[in-house]
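User: Here's a structure from my thesis project, written as C-alpha cells. My advisor, Dr. K., wants to see whether a designed sequence matches the one we expressed. Can you design one independently, without my sequence as a hint?
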C-alpha cells in the first residue's frame, strides 16, 4: 500500500482517507505547521508520495528533503498558482478569458490608482495577490473608499518582512455565477457552484467563498466551461488544480486558480473522481 503524505488535517484529509484506502493508498499526516523540524535527525515516518506541497514553503523544502518525497503538486505548482496576477497574465497570453485586471505594487501614487480604477469602471475589486479563501478581498465603489483600502495595504506592506507587496484591481462582475472546477491529470473531474443564501445576498454580501459561509452545490457544467478549466491546467502545467470561473449572461472568465484546492464530498464530482486521483498519485510515486 502506498503511503501518501498530506500536510493538513483539515477537511481534505478526512475526505481522502477512506476512498483512497479502498484504492490501496494510505493517507497519513505529515505535520508542516506549528512544529519543530530536526534537520539533522532521520525521520521517524516514511512516505512514498506527497499530495500537495505545504503552504509554508520553507518548511516544505526541508520536509521534502528529509523524507525524499515527490509531490503530486510540488513547490513550483503551488507558487505558480499563488501568484494571482502571474496566473492571469499567463492565461491571458495563452488566449484564455480573464477579468480586466491591473496589478499594483505598494506604495502607489494616488493618480495612478485612480486612472487604473477609471479604466476598469466602478465599483472595483481589490484583491491581495497571494491570499486564499477570499482573505482581504474588498469592493470599492468610489475613489475615497479605494484610497482608504489601499492605505491599509500600505501600512501592512511597510512592514519589512512582508514578502509580496502587490495587489490586484479587478473589474466587478455583478450577478456572476461562481464555479470551482476540479481538474485531475489534465481532465475535468467535477465542479461546484458556490452560492450565498438569499438573505446574505439581500444584506449586500457578494463574495462566494465557502469559508465565508457560501454553500457549494455540485453542478453539471457545459462543455465550454470544462474545456476552459482543462486548458488553464494545461497552460499552468499543474496536475491537480481548482479553477475558479465567473459566468455572467454574456461571458465567462477564469478568475483565479488554486493548486491546494479543498476536496469536497465525492457526490459533487464525476463518478470516477477518486479512481483518477489515485491514478495520479500512483503515477507521481512511480516517477520519483
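Assistant: Designed independently from the structure alone:
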Amino acid at each position: 500500500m502506498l503511503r501518501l503524505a498530506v500536510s493538513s488535517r483539515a477537511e481534505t484529509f478526512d475526505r481522502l482517507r477512506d476512498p483512497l484506502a479502498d484504492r490501496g493508498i494510505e493517507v497519513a499526516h505529515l505535520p508542516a505547521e506549528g512544529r519543530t523540524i530536526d534537520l539533522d535527525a532521520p525521520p521517524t515516518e516514511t512516505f512514498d508520495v506527497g499530495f500537495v506541497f505545504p503552504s509554508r514553503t520553507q518548511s516544505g523544502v526541508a520536509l521534502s528533503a528529509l523524507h525524499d518525497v515527490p509531490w503530486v503538486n510540488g513547490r513550483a505548482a503551488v507558487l505558480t498558482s499563488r501568484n494571482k496576477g502571474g496566473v492571469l497574465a499567463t492565461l491571458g497570453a495563452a488566449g484564455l478569458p480573464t477579468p480586466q485586471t491591473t496589478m499594483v505594487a505598494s506604495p502607489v501614487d494616488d493618480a495612478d490608482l485612480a486612472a487604473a480604477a477609471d479604466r476598469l469602471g466602478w465599483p472595483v475589486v481589490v484583491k491581495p495577490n497571494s491570499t486564499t479563501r477570499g482573505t482581504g478581498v474588498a469592493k470599492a465603489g468610489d475613489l475615497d473608499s479605494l484610497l482608504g483600502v489601499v492605505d491599509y495595504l500600505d501600512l501592512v506592506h511597510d512592514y519589512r518582512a512582508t514578502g509580496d507587496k502587490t495587489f490586484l484591481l479587478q473589474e466587478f462582475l455583478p450577478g456572476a455565477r461562481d464555479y470551482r472546477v476540479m481538474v485531475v491529470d489534465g481532465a475535468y473531474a467535477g465542479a461546484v457552484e458556490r452560492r450565498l443564501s438569499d438573505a446574505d445576498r439581500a444584506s449586500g454580501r457578494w463574495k462566494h467563498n465557502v469559508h465565508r459561509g457560501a454553500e457549494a452545490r455540485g453542478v453539471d457544467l457545459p462543455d465550454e466551461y470544462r474545456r476552459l478549466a482543462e486548458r488553464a491546467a494545461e497552460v499552468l502545467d499543474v496536475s491537480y488544480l481548482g479553477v475558479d470561473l465567473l459566468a455572467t449572461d454574456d461571458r465567462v472568465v477564469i478568475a483565479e486558480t488554486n493548486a491546494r484546492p479543498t476536496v469536497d464530498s465525492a457526490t459533487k464530482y464525476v463518478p470516477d473522481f477518486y479512481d483518477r486521483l489515485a491514478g495520479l498519485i500512483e503515477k507521481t510515486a512511480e516517477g520519483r
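When you compare it with your expressed construct, this may help: The longest helix spans residues 143-157.
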